[in-house]
Every structure is written in structure tokens, then in C-alpha cells.
């Protein structure tokens, strides 16, 4: 029996710790009866409107300009069981969690040729990311859209001119019906299916058109009202400084897979591969992070592609590497160490405060903790009591 290496044991220990913290976060976030983040209130409001059969895209009152920022798919799905749960946030959070599980399945499918262990490693690198966990357990639409986008790319990877191409287009349309910024999958699908021939392109575009037609029916509104809410009232000023700040923030937590992403794009991937084009278009989509009020959700697609790409780069290294030199580590051991380091960076550890001589006081070093606490629950209960 082969004895596990120190690198493998380190990866197992770190994975167990991170998995335990992730499970604790999921349990606490799902049962938290108050908003974890401000945008949750917007999502839950429109989910309740969908559950009540009200208009999702009504005329906007200039005195109180509340508009619906997203297409109808997420609201329709979460609205199916909104009134059956006592916690008003739970239906939307469960829908986001379902999107996270769909993402994990798509990542595993895209890594099926790498073997079970490496596919599982890719799923861990994705699912335990602080950014992914944050959006997968709050009432936010992003993970459902990402799951549909990744499923579209995974389906297109093995699609010919038949039903698989149509299903890929349908899933890409579903991503757009969740959040229009998930356009990278549609752009990659259109390009790749077009390069595979007219029949494949026709099947793919037919699936996309069907999804968009169903989405218009789900909205229950006219195209004009839909466009007013999703485009006219959804425009925000663009600020490059915010985009660079968010990029640095995300890179600080994902340096290993970020390196894998760059190597994947530059390492000779097949020019017709859907995932490669998806990564290119997702990278261009980072410009959305420059909008005023933008957050880390605009990097979710890059994180997903980076996790798959990093594992595929490791596979290529295995194929081209010869026997290790004396004293040199095997490629598998190097991958285990790098994966363990990346997982360690997901730990919810607060940086130490920094003393500022300018202000003569300690400044907080930042925080990565996003799990709701008991004190926050008490504060929420006090606010609700005052409102009642």
C-alpha cells in the first residue's frame, strides 16, 4: 500500500478545515431571518411580487423610483415556494444554493477527463471560495445565472448539430434571463457553434431564441416595460478606480487559481474549445466591475474558469513532465501544495489592524468574515420590533 505524501496529507487536512467552516456558514446563513446584505431586500421584494402574481415590471413612480434590476427567471423559481417558508429570505437563498450546486456539477463535468480526484479538487477550489460561498448563500441571483452559463458551456463542449447544441443555447438564454451580464456564455456559444457549421449554429440559436421567448412570457410585461427596468433605469456611472480596487481584492484571495487561469488561456488550449472562449469573454466582462456600487459578483465567471483551467494546466504538466530529478517534487505533489495554499487563503481570517501615524489611531485591516453572527441576529430582532 502506497503511503500518502506529506503534500497530500496537508491538502486533506486543509480541505477538511475549510469544508467544516463552509458547512457552518451555509447552515447559519440559511437560517438567518434577517438580511445578510443590503441587496437581499431587493431580491426578496420582487420574489414576493412574483409569488403574489403581481407585476414584476410596473410603471415607475418618479417620487419613489423603485425598479426591478433583473429578468424574471430567478424570481419565478424562488417564488414557487416563497410563501411556504416562514423565513422570507430562505426561498431566495435556497435558489442561490441550488445555483451553486449546479455550478459544482458543471465544473466536475468539465473536468471529467482529469479523473475523479482532480475533478473533486476543482470543485473544492470553486465551491469554497469566499466569493462563491458569499453569493451562493444569500438572496442574490448571480449563482443561478452562473450555473446555467457553466452548464451551457459544458453541454456545448460535447455538442454536435443535434439536441445538445439546442440545449446549450437554451441554457445560455436561461443565464441571460437570470442576469443580463452573464452574456459571456452566449457570446462563446454563438462563436463556437458558428465555427462548427450551419446546422450546429441553427440548433444553438434556436435554443437561445426559445429561452428568450419563454422569458418574455415569464416577465408578464411588454418588451418596452422590460427594457425600461433592465436598461434605462439600470445604468450607472462607470469608475475605473473601483474596477481596479475590486480586481486587487479578488486577486488577493485567489492568486493560485488566477495564475492557473492565465496559463490556461496562454497554454495552447484548442481554438475551438468553448471553455477557452468563455474565459476570454468573461475576462472582458470585468469592465462591469467599474460600475458605481459594483461588487465581487462580477468575478464569479473568472473564478469558475480559473478553477477548471488550473486543473487542466496541471494535467498538461503531468503529460509533458519526465521522471522527477533527485530531490525534486513530483507534479502531483506540487499541485497538492498549491491547492492547499489556495484553500488556506479562503479561511475567514481578519487581517491585523494597522496603526496610522497620520490619524494616530488603529485602522481596521479589513475583513473577510461574512457569516451572520448571533449579535447581528439580536440587532435584526430589535429593528423588526421597532418597526412593528
Provide key terms for this protein.
mainly alpha; two-stranded antiparallel sheet; 388 residues
Brief write-up:
With 388 residues, the chain is mainly α. It has helices at residues 6-31, 39-51, 73-79, 90-110, 116-127, 130-136, 142-157, 163-178, 184-195, 198-219, 223-230, 240-253, 255-266, 274-284, 300-320, 331-344, 374-387; strands at residues 354-356, 361-363. The longest helix has 26 residues, at 6-31.
List the helices and strands and how they pair.
Elements: H1 6-31, H2 39-51, H3 73-79, H4 90-110, H5 116-127, H6 130-136, H7 142-157, H8 163-178, H9 184-195, H10 198-219, H11 223-230, H12 240-253, H13 255-266, H14 274-284, H15 300-320, H16 331-344, E1 354-356, E2 361-363, H17 374-387
Percent of residues in β-strands: under 5%
Secondary-structure content class: mainly alpha
The SSE string, one letter per element, is HHHHHHHHHHHHHHHHEEH
The number of distinct β-strands equals 2
Please list the strands of the largest sheet in the order they lie side by side.
Answer: 1-2
From the spread of the alpha carbons, the general shape counts as: globular
User: How is the biggest beta sheet arranged?
Assistant: 2 strands, antiparallel
Describe the model.
This protein has a two-stranded antiparallel sheet. Helices cover 63% and strands 2% of the residues. Residues 354-360 and 362-367 have low confidence and may be disordered. It is globular and about 65 Å long. With 388 residues, it is an all-alpha fold. It has helices spanning 6-31, 39-51, 73-79, 90-110, 116-127, 130-136, 142-157, 163-178, 184-195, 198-219, 223-230, 240-253, 255-266, 274-284, 300-320, 331-344, 374-387; strands at 354-356, 361-363. The longest helix is centred in the N-terminal third of the chain and has 26 residues, at 6-31.
